[in-house]
Amino acid sequence: EVQLVESGGGLVQPGGSLRLSCAASGFTFTSYSMNWVRQAPGKGLEWVSYISGSNSTIYYADSVKGRFTISRDNAKNFVYLQMNSLRAEDTAVYYCAKGDHDGRGAFDIWGQGTMVTVSS
Amino acid sequence: EIVLTQSPGTLSLSPGERATLSCRASQSVRTSYLAWYQQKPGQAPRLLIYGASSRATGIPDRFSGSGSGTDFTLTISRLEPEDFAMYYCQQYGSSPYTFGQGTKLEIK
Question: For the segment B66-80, what is each residue's pLDDT rounded down to a tens digit?
Answer without folding.
Answer: 999 999 999 999 999
